[in-house]
Amino acid sequence: MRPILGYLSTLPFLWSTGAHAGPINWGFSPSDPPPYVAMSGTALQTSLTRDLGELVASTTARAVVFVAVPNNRIDEAFTQGRIDIICNTQPSWHSHPEQLSWSDVLYEDADVIATRSLSRSPASLSDLKGAMVGATLGYHYSETLTEAFASGQLTRHDVRDLNTRIKMLERGRLDATVEMRRPLQHYLLTKPANIQISDWEIERFDLRCATQRQPDDSRSLIDAIHQLLDQGQIAELIERYQ
Questions:
Q1: Which of 37, 140, 152, 203 is the most buried (most CB within 10 A)?
Q2: What is the DSSP string of 53-101?
Q3: What are phi and psi for residue 197, nearest 5 degrees?
């Protein structure tokens, strides 16, 4: 990776904006699994969220403060001015996305189904009819999956974290679990388990950053992210966690 300082001379506008701005209040959901978010107690550890926040802060010559916000409180946190930005999100996960400014796509991910290795991997929701399915509290699932839970086609069981869901799946306490592909693959690199990941994707989505629409310093955050995308630095961050 080229040193960050090597790029700063190309960002005079971002530097001048940062010189007069306070710290970036960088929101994140503590329930997002690694590599997006890694927690030790209440402290955010090395992860895509922390790496990206520190990179943007360095690029804009600002400090950064990481603010944990539950998924169902993110819009409220923007309204109250508690956070300036949140990444690893998409417009459909917000009640009023038109009130936010959006970055270009940072990376893609998808919701997939994990099952025990000896089970037949599902190719559709109908293959899971009657199953007890692990889910994440507060997570925004596709309309199709949400309707399957609401109708009783599938039984939803909210579980606090990925590690616990995988253990429950291995022990037969869940028939399947819905996971984001990148965190699940990341988990299995360090903690191999007797599970399989479906090739079929329930939903594929583009993940972005969102900021408040009005302040000039919020616009500078989006500009910095676009500069980093163009320079390939965000792609390099993602490669660290592959």
A1: 37
A2: HHHHHHHTT--EEEEE--GGGHHHHHHTTS-SEEEEE-GGGSS-GGGEE
A3: -110, 130
Angle at alpha carbon of residue 73, lines to 68 and 75, rounded to 5°: 110
Please answer whether residues 92 and 31 qualify as being in contact, where contact means their C-beta atoms are separated by less than 8 angstroms: no
Joined together, the tokens standing for residue 79 give 């309204």
- pLDDT tens for 136-187 read 988 889 999 999 999 999 999 999 899 999 999 999 999 999 999 999 999 9
Closest CA to 32 of 86, 81, 76, 106: 86
Handedness of CA 22, 210, 184, 149 (dihedral sign): positive
Structural contact between residues 115 and 195, judged by C-beta atoms closer than 8 angstroms: yes
Cα 171 to Cα 25: distance, rounded to the nearest angstrom: 40
Reported confidence tier of residue 222, pLDDT bands at 50, 70, 90: very high
What letter represents residue 144's amino acid? Answer: T
pTM value is: 0.85
210: Cβ contacts below 8 Å, ≥ 6 apart: 78, 85, 86, 87, 89, 91, 94, 97, 100, 101, 102, 103
**By C-alpha distance, which of 34, 77, 28 is closest to 53?**
28
Q: How confident is the model at residue 20 (pLDDT cuts 50, 70, 90)?
A: low
Produce one character per residue of 216-241: b if its CB has 16 or more CB atoms within 10 Å, e if not.
ebbebbbbbbebbbebebbeebeeeb
What is the identity of the amino acid at 124?
S
